[in-house]
Design brief:
This protein has one domain. The protein is 49% helix and 0% strand. It is built from 3 helices and no strands. It is globular, with a radius of gyration of 14 Å.
Length: 76
């Protein structure tokens, strides 16, 4: 599987908050990604390209991610 959600094969469902899905729909508009599924599959596949143990995010990315998760109530 190439990581492209449009390629036939075995798939699993991933649940994301509606607010996140809407924001992703806005972000991908005009990007060439046909669906949020295709975009999410691409992004997750890119994260997996990093060697195990290597941080997929910079320290600043991680700080922003934690801040966003905190604001959404996912972490304290």
């Amino acid at each position: 599987m190439t990581g492209d959600a449009s390629v036939p094969g075995r798939f699993r469902s991933l649940r994301i908050p509606e607010e996140t899905a809407r924001a992703l729909e806005e972000r991908i508009r005009g990007s060439g990604f046909a669906t949020v599924d295709a975009f999410a599959s691409f992004v997750l596949a890119r994260l997996l390209e990093k060697p195990a143990g290597e941080a997929p995010f910079s320290e600043e990315d991680e700080r922003q991610l934690k801040e966003r998760l905190r604001s959404l109530g996912y972490i304290d």
